[in-house]
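Components:
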Amino acid sequence: MTRTDVLVMVTTRERIVEAADDLFYRQGFEHTSFASIAQAVEISRGNFYHHFKSKDQILDAVIDRRLDNTRAMLEAWEQQAASPRERIRCFVRILITNRAKIELHGCPVGTLTTELAKLEHTAQDKAARVFTLFRRWLTHQFEALGHEAFADALAMHVLGRSQGVAVLASAYRDPTFIDREVDDIERWLKNLRKPRPS
Amino acid sequence: MTRTDVLVMVTTRERIVEAADDLFYRQGFEHTSFASIAQAVEISRGNFYHHFKSKDQILDAVIDRRLDNTRAMLEAWEQQAASPRERIRCFVRILITNRAKIELHGCPVGTLTTELAKLEHTAQDKAARVFTLFRRWLTHQFEALGHEAFADALAMHVLGRSQGVAVLASAYRDPTFIDREVDDIERWLKNLRKPRPS
DNA sequence: GTCTATAATGCGATAGAC
DNA sequence: GTCTATCGCATTATAGAC
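Structure:
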């Protein structure tokens, strides 16, 4: 296999994980059956079981995929945005970028961790690690803004507010609410003063 | 039946709805089977079907129960608290009062509407009406504070922040986070200045 | 109102042919 | 790697006796 081939090739396994990721987001983990994933990828159930022996295994692969995608997104923001403040704005504005999906299905991270908590699923902690990627990244940005002492608390604050917006946006399907709250968070961020050195 | 009897009597139907309410909260709607509800109430599945013909029917009854309980709670706050500000504080402090359950299972209202959205269940709008009870009540309080023009936006803001706290509290099981955010919301509420008349 | 027995369906998972 | 066929199980839901 040449190097070019690798770029084009998409394995059946990858197609399964991608379809499962999408279906878990739109329908929920438990509500999504093996049959529906197999149908989406247009393979048989038997073939499916060749790649994944259990539902927990594919959940594990989906979370790994989300961890990878999140890391890539955070790195891209690190490149694109010039200042820590601009980088935090990138995060907040996902609510605008993904508005349509969020109104229909909420936040992929929040809804999955919530569901796994109710199922008392062992993968709950792993799913929460996607949150932790955002949390640590935001913490770094707030540290760069000079808020070393409260950086993690500020990161959790921004993370929490985004989650709240996602929950209510999907409950009411109200786009104006997202705009208002994003504006409010951005105003809050702008008014965050660098603490004077002690 | 005398008046005293009514106070003591609890019908099987009520016991079923109460158990279902609790199980839907802790395990999720779809994950909760008729058998588990019947087991909690200690009746047979057959008896269960005598009271509720379908799973949708019991969900409907559970939401009605939550609507009633919410209305009663809001009325109680209306009596207990002296000022609109104090009343809004009552709402925010549910996060403290119900901390243990929220860390384990999130907010009952938010998690149910989120789940029903993924199932594309017709009861989703009805479940969101519990949110609307809080929303309208908070709107009234902000109006009483003199914020007639932005009362609904302020209500949605408080509602959204509470939801965000609930999601992250259950994802991380971190009680200090709840305390910090509740303090922050109370500080925000305290600093909300009554707009000067135009 | 409460029970047992049972139908009908869909699910996760396995075996084995090609 | 892909398929068909099938098992075992849990679930919703019904029928009918007491």
